[in-house]
Amino acid sequence: MTKPLKQVHLAAHFPGVNNTTVWSDPAAGSHIEFESFKEFAQIAERGRFDFMFLAEGLRLREQAGKIYDLDVVGRPDTFTVLAALAAVTDHLGLTGTINSTFNEPYEVARQFASLDWLSDGRAAWNVVTSWDAFTGENFRRGGYLPQDERYERAQNFLDTALTLWDSWAGDEIIADKESGRFLSRPDVGAFERHDKHFDIEGHFNVPRSPQGRPVIFQAGESDTGREFAAARADAIFSRYSQYDEGRAFYTDVKGRLAKYGRKPDELLILPAATFVLGDTDEEAQEAAREIRFQQVSPATTIAFLEQLWNTDLSDHDPDGPLPDFDPVETDVNGLISQGRASARRHGDRVETARQWRAKAEAEGLTTRELIVEVTGRQAFVGTPRTVAETINRFVQDDVSDGFILVSHLTPSGLEPFVEKVVPILQELGVHRTEYDGTTLRDNLGLAPLPAPAATSDEADRSAVSA
Amino acid sequence: MALDGAGWHPAAWREADAQPEALLSPRYWTALVQQAERGLLDLVTFEDGLALQSDTKFTADVRTDRVRGLLDAVLIAARVAPRTSHIGLVPTAVVTHTEPFHLSKAVATLDYASTGRAGIRVRVSSRVDEAAHFGRRHVVPFTAADRADLDNPVVQNRLTDYFDEAAEYVEVLRRLWDSWEDDAEIRDVATGRFVDRDKLHYIDFEGHRFSVKGPSITPRPPQGQPIVAALGHADIPYDLIASSADLGFVTPHSAQDAVEIVGAIRAKQAAARRTDDVHVFADLVVFLDNDPATARARKERLDEVAGDAYSSDAEIFVGTSIELADLLQEWQASGLTGFRLRPGAIPHDLTAITDSLVPELQRRGAFRTAYEADTLRGLLGLSRPANRYAQEAS
Question: Does residue B394 lie in a domain region?
Fold first, then answer.
């Protein structure tokens, strides 16, 4: 017995403010001009991708108290650039990462409902929580929350937004010029929400949007994050693009759906993944290595080293061996690097440094070569056929339902993938040759949402039309 | 041109040529702005609010015979931007409940998406229903009784509070726009640096209602400073226009009225030691037809359908394009630098403005015959401002 082939879902991540993005390449374009975003989105749409994806960071990163200047700095407002992109694309989903700590539900729900209307049903929200008072300094509400309250607030925030989106059933606007009735009933959009984090009530002012609500993405990896996704999300943006870890994550999360009364195909798992293509697999490997060294410049080498060592290493030689002393343990997660999630991942600094030294000594690596080895290697490297077949195998083997591709070049880095890999995936019968629906839910293979409970009995109540 | 739903008259949606079912459609808004652009207008504004529209000015209503439901104005403007090329795009934003950091980067991004045509009209809100949608602060409603009692010090203090906050908010918008110098992005491969961080600036704003650290996450927008607009009907809002805006919308009801309002704003501007230009545009609701009787009959018909005679904060003009052109020129002599026309019904009055009023003004040599600039600042005759932080450094 053979399983039916799963379709490969593909998405395009606009290159972000990590060192993955190679801004020093002569082919690298603007990270802020609208033309860059337009070109990027149109390439993804030519490849019949499901959606494009924008990350977000609400304060410029700092290291050792200074603005971090080695990676791309600066990005547009997520909602605004997505709304503009809706004007120059027809099918591509528009996924924005929006923080639930430094926003209010009424405003965010309204912005997503507006984006959904303005894109004819292509909006998606990657719900994230924030982690620090550092970012909070940019906001009138501040925003520091203890770890355990972040998901609680995020859950309450999302539940509140869902309440707002469901406050319109979709049948309220009749706009009947003859009778003069614009609304089928009074009191449209009525809602109230009273919980630990939100105490609001009134009327939502955006009628039910084409998708009912935006598609919900979630990106957390903790146990709480996985439960949150299993209960509420339509898709997960994960970082598990490797075979074994990907399968483990996939199995774990899909296994959590049943207790929320959901089927496995109601939640898509889409890891971020990088790729490098070449005419031969060897050429691709060589190109991948060159890109890694572009991504880890001498200055970036030192900055990465300082993130782990937690001290000033500006005099260290990136082409020499690792420092021979242990990292500074005081003020862990503190002053050295702010505004990025990865800083928290350095659990035991001394132990990690020992592992790095052991590896460098065993393989004869300089500091820079070591950093190249231990940080972010590309997920898919090879000829277009190798990459297409690997991606397809991963999807058929339930490593994921597809991938959110991150190119190292803005804005045209996806072009070789679209021109060379996509046709092979189409030939394999696992990727669409034309869009067959109109909404992002259609692209993702998610069923349309039912309208909230019928309101026809209310519609019959006499309407006030003074 | 001020765009709002199917037009400013509450019965406009019932006109034969109205498209009330399309008010949430991107194609509707794109077509309207393209029409305004064919008329070579300087800018369009988009109304907005954080509650459903209401006939009772300060609270929600339960009517079913009016247009209800509206999209986020900044996002409508962004959706329209790539489909237009010259006209300025000025959405409305409520500043009382929103974050200046978010709005600053949103307007900067609108400026990038429109390559230099963005503005923002800031609006304060004392509506109880809007406050309840946020649940973060208690507002004392500004009522019709208050409006009739503007000289009462209690009312004055309350109003001052809202408008002072708006002024602080605009200050944060402006500082954030300047928080990147124009040449901050250096892409210096030799040193591995993407930006020169000495050209990024903390704004360190400490106000009565909020503090904001900065810098913005969005580089300085094409215009440097997008246009800030505000609508004012009284002395306290005039302070905001004079101290903080590039463009004030005011509501005179006669040429003499206009003289007084412009005089008040100019005096406040001098007191605030502003050296840059501030435009003062008069708002007018317009019902335009080929002869005065037709216009009056149409307005009366709309009033009858609505159930009430339409009233407005702005002067309501009913007549022909020639009469309106006469009035605009007469009022312009009062020191006004422009007009914001609110079409009574869309598309009728919008088309009348672009196809009838504009040619009439062109015949009189009082209106452009082609766009002379690519940015909104350019169309308004405003230069691109220097960066406040760059000046400090030099």
Answer: no
Q: Is position B301 within any domain?
A: yes
Query: Which of A135, A205, A137, A208 lies closest to A169 in space, CA to CA?
Result: A208
pLDDT for B148: 81
pLDDT given for residue A141 in this prediction = 75
- Regions of chain B with pLDDT less than 70: 391-394
ipTM value of the model? 0.97
Residue B69 lies in a domain: yes
Q: B108–A300: do the CB atoms touch at under 8 Å? A: no
**CA distance linking residue A155 with residue A149, whole number of Å:** 10
- The model's pLDDT over A383-396, given as tens digits with 9 standing for 90+, comes to 999 999 999 999 99
Question: Chain B window 98-117: which residues touch A at a Cβ cutoff of 8 Å?
Answer: 98-102, 105-106, 108-110, 112-113, 115
* Chain A residue with minimum CA distance to B128: A202
pLDDT at residue A336, rounded to an integer: 65
| Selected residue of B9, B23, B27, B75 to mutate for chain A interface (largest A Cβ count, 10 A) | B75
CA distance A73 to A77: 13
Asked if the Cβ–Cβ distance from B52 to A189 is below 8 Å, we say yes
Domain that holds residue B103: 2-378
**Angstroms from B87 CA to nearest CA on chain A:** 15
User: What CATH number should be reported for the domain holding residue B229?
Assistant: 3.20.20.30
* Closest approach of B126 to chain A, Cα-based (Å): 15
Assess if residue B389 is contained within a domain.
no
A353 closest CA partner among A332, A327, A330, A318 = A327
Tally Cβ neighbours within 10 Å of residue B390. Answer: 16
Q: A115 in contact with B at a CB cutoff of 8 Å?
A: yes
Q: Which residues of chain A make contact with B76, given a CB cutoff of 8 A?
A: 83, 114, 118
Q: What DSSP assignment string belongs to B361-381?
A: HHHTT-S-SS---SSHHHHTT
Beta bridge partner(s), residue A99: A128
What are B314-368's pLDDT values in tens digits? 999 999 999 999 999 999 999 999 999 999 999 999 999 999 999 999 999 999 9
Q: What's the rounded mean pLDDT across residues A281-293? A: 96
**For tokens 């502003």, what's the residue?**
B274
What is the least distance, in Å, from the CA of A231 to any CA of chain B?
Answer: 26
Number of domains in chain B: 1
pLDDT in tens, B103-120: 999 999 999 999 999 999
A 298-317 residues inside an 8 A Cβ radius of B? 298-300
Would you state the pLDDT for residue A335? 53
